Recover the amino acids of this structure.
């Protein structure tokens, strides 16, 4: 084979490769860097729309998490927690539990004991 035949075959193969890349959505810039730009079919558009929707949902979740992380640490939230704790402290101790003594017919508050009566 002579040089001219090899050159023509190489150019045809190069053209076929470039056509296949273009159909697949791969383009080259002036520096030779190849980039995938995707096709124009409906499946690709649906994937892009689904991806954008998922990204928007993730952004909303991130905003909620940021609000949760920061709302409890604001001065206003701390003041509300302090006031709530102070109100609970002013309410006083809780009522003691009432227990029944088996030897008495009336209940006795917990912590108190009945004095034993001397035997006769």
């Amino acid at each position: 084979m002579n040089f001219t035949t090899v050159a023509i075959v190489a150019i045809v193969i190069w053209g076929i490769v470039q056509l296949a890349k273009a159909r697949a959505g791969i383009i080259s810039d002036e520096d030779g860097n190849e980039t995938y730009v995707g096709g124009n079919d409906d499946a690709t558009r649906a994937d892009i729309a689904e991806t954008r929707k998922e990204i928007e949902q993730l952004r909303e979740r991130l905003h909620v998490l940021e609000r949760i992380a920061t709302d409890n640490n604001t001065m206003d939230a701390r003041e509300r927690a302090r006031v709530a704790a102070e109100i609970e402290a002013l309410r006083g101790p809780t009522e003691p539990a009432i227990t029944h003594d088996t030897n008495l017919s009336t209940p006795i508050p917990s912590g108190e004991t009945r004095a034993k009566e001397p035997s006769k």
